[in-house]
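Possible regression after last week's pipeline update?

I re-ran a chain I had predicted before the update to compare outputs. Posting the input and the new output here so someone can diff against the archived version. Not blocking, just want to make sure nothing changed silently.
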Amino acid sequence: MGQNCLLARRLVEAGVSYVSCLSGGGWDTHKDNFVPQRELLLPRLDQAISALVSDLSESGLDKRVLVNVMGEFGRTPKINQDAGRDHWPGTFCALFAGGGLNMGQMIGTTDTQAAYPTSRPYSPGSVLATIYHVLGIDYRHDFPDKIGRRYPTLPEGEPISELVS
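New output (post-update):
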């Protein structure tokens, strides 16, 4: 992960406008969730992302580079019989840094079980609309097919207002 972030930083410095980094896998912890998270996955992610964000900030690249960290869904609020956590669509989190967005805030809350949002529930479409906003992509644009039917870039979602205001 650290090498991916270093390469991403060098690519951005060289003018590349979009880079995607993989975390190295292992996050699908349907069993034995806690040991891999505590001893490998979270320390590796924390060190790599914090170093990347700090480096981008110190170099001034943070104004034009958006760092986004997220998965494709959340995890069950209850631990399963194998000491793991399964897929859960009720909540998930996303981290944003840089990109000219308003930083230094936590947006939204969940219930005490982290099962469902209790305030500021944003959809995956809103997360994508925020990313598209930073990239200069019109998230409201429709694309016509060959017979004239219109297909939206995003079927729903607006940029997260606390980040883009």
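Follow-up from reviewer: compared with the archived run. The mean pLDDT is 93. Marking as no regression found.
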